[in-house]
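Mods, move this if it's the wrong board.
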Amino acid sequence: MDAIRTAAGRDGLAAIVARPSRAVIALDFDGTLAPLVPDPEQARAHPGAVPALAALAPEVASVAVVTGRPAGVAVRLGGFAGVAGLEHLVVLGHYGAERWDAVTGTVHAPAPHPGVAAVRSALPGVLAEVGLWHDTYVEEKGRAVAVHTRRATDPQGAFEALKGPLSDLAARHGLVVEPGRLVLELRPPGVDKGVALTEYLREVGAESVLYAGDDLGDLPAFAAVEKLRSDGLAGILVCSGTGVPDLSSRADLTLPGPAEVTAFLSDLSHKVSTT
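Not the wrong board. Structure tokens:
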């Protein structure tokens, strides 16, 4: 196992290994299980990710993918459906607003926020006004809209230039802006990975949790695990990559990227299968 830098993280991993049947393995998708790519539709889980999860899932209480993507999209891009060993996988999409259960193969979700449709209609005009319509990629997420600047000549400059206009647009329609690495997502307020993760851990009666993420959207999940640890639940926080210092500084373990996260999960599956 890779070196874990905190006592809380070491205790969290030890609890998972000692009693895997009460452990939840929760993972972000993009940047954690799947390498980041300029076009989000081209993202795919690392080749070893699904086999590693399929080996690990039968040993633990649950494996959950917690993502800002629509649940069905994450299932498709991840290749999670119909995989032996992943019969009870759960995907909490749109920061928990949607849920896909492998046991039924269906997505459950409430009605979308009306502000998303309004923002979607107004977005081309806003991007054109700041001269960035052709330098951005707009990702339709059903319950949210994300604007990526990785394709721009100056990706960081485009990101900074869009913060204000997109924040104003979101506020006019009752939405909030969630920044990430060269992406600004306009989505409904009051939904985040921390809320989704906390509710799910309570639902399954987890005693321990591993959460792995890579971006600012994972900060609420990190905060949730930190809070739950103070209440007695064991947990380990894993950061994929070092591109977000606010996240990596709070992680118990930092791994270079999805390939190393996959290797860590594979190694963990071997450890829990021998307990």
